[in-house]
Amino acid sequence: MLSATGLVAGYGKGRRVLGGVSLTLEQGRMIGVLGPSGCGKSTLIRVLALLHEPDAGQVRLDGERVTRFRYAAPAELRRRIGVVFQHPRASVDPRHTLRRIVAAHLPAGAAPEEADRLAELVGLTPELLRRRPHEVSDGQLQRACLARALGSGPRYLLCDEMTAMLDASSAAALVHLVRTRRDLGVLMVSHDAALLDACCDETFRWRDLTAAPAHRE
Ligand SMILES: Nc1ncnc2c1ncn2[C@@H]1O[C@H](COP(=O)(O)OP(=O)(O)OP(=O)(O)O)[C@@H](O)[C@H]1O
To answer: What SMART domains does the record tag this protein with (predicted)?
Structure first.
């Protein structure tokens, strides 16, 4: 289980974004968080992914309280959490081939075929794997980012507006892929209520998660 209790976080003095957010994500469930632009959804994802240190509150991962975040977060804990970001082009190195992007989070010593297996899982052909980001569509690149996130063998997958940059059919394909991974706990944050209602087991509104929110819907 990945859980947050009373998370308070922001960006320096007077820039509080999370004002006491609580949330629980269990393996085998897909939950949605619905909130308007700027309310703090990405900040919540970053804290849950151990990429941003909260000012107060707790993150617990499989029963263990996380005390170290960002570069200090133990690799063994980080590997349990995969993240797919909103803007695929901003989250990859434009010089790398898709194969290298897909393989980025595989454990050291993983067989080269592992990248092919991940690519196949997300519907990327070997020919696409040889291309670089500027030679593929946003949807294809986001598939590579999803494959990369799965590379560490995570138990939890955090999707930050994963489909916002995609057309409807690419979005549906990606959501279907994630939806079929019942071994994972999936958190999808979005401002698209229809998307979350269609794919999530349960959807929470931002105001329901937060005791004293900085922003309200
Ligand atoms: N690195 C940063 N430094 C300072 N303020 C930031 C930083 N990142 C985000 N913010 C601010 O924190 C607030 C919440 O941002 P966040 O990206 O978490 O919201 P969001 O709900 O994900 O928005 P969107 O749906 O538009 O992606 C915003 O007011 C934003 O301007």
So the answer is: AAA
**Residue of 15, 42, 48 to mutate, ligand 1, most atoms within 8 A of C-beta:** 42
Distance 19 CA to ligand 1 centre (A): 14
Q: Looking at the predicted complex, does its ipTM rise above 0.85? A: yes
The pTM assigned to this predicted structure is 0.92
Q: What is the CATH number of the domain that holds 145?
A: 3.40.50.300
Give the burial string for 110-140 (b: 16+ CB within 10 Å, else e): eeeeebbebbebbbbeeebbebbbeebebbb
Around ligand 1, the residues with Cβ closer than 6 Å are 11, 15, 17, 35, 37-43, 161, 191
Label residue 197 exposed, middle or buried (CB < 10 Å: 0-12, 13-18, 19+): exposed
